[in-house]
Glutamate racemase
Amino acid sequence: MALIGVFDSGVGGLSILDEALCQLPEHDYIYLADSINAPYGEKSSEWITARSLELCQYLAKQDCQVIVVACNTATAQAIEQIRHALKGIAIIGVEPGIKPAAMHSPKGIVGVLATEATLKSDKFNALLDTLTPECQFIKQAGAGLVPLIEAGQADSEAALELLAEHLEPILNAGADTLVLGCTHFPFLRRSIRKLLGERITLIDTSEAVVRQLKRQLELQQQTIEREHHGKITFLSSKDESSLLTLAKELMHADLHLHSIQARAFS
């Protein structure tokens, strides 16, 4: 079994952890939420890089064999620096699923809902430049959505109203596909469906990220014990009890099958 670190600015990376527990429940996990500093998307690139590196270095010191940077903003701003500093550890990032969206959009019009920092990052725009010019991308910053999700209000009227405002330019452009370009945003699926029904295809990359995690573990020849459920340690820089409560509310995985700890991190 491996010890896997999963880091996010807050609870968004729980969407990645949830998928990991479905595919790879036998491993041990440390989930680190830097909720006192969420959201990252409104901070400077220098701050994001320094803080992301600091937290990944902490996970490395806990003997994590693999670290998942389960934050689109941190991946966009800091993944190269993290990999350079932690060369002996497999580092897996996340990025908006604009490539599969472009391939599957019938009309070639794709909305991208992400943080301002992700949409402005060199990494995101370099990826955008590799895609077919026939596909039109409608970029929309989801300002204000992350704090609502962090507060446990993903299904609230406030989230619904703000989401409708952010989705309006995407819908007006005729998009048939929507990329959830922040790991927090899969927790808005119910609200999106309430607003749009099934008329738009939603793309998030949780499954693809965990497939990459699985490949890394296979390269390390980690033993697979399908009947075993590993330990999960939840760390929060703000409130570990609130993090655990939100994990139980937002995740589909049966956390009762795992040994759970929740601790403060500073």
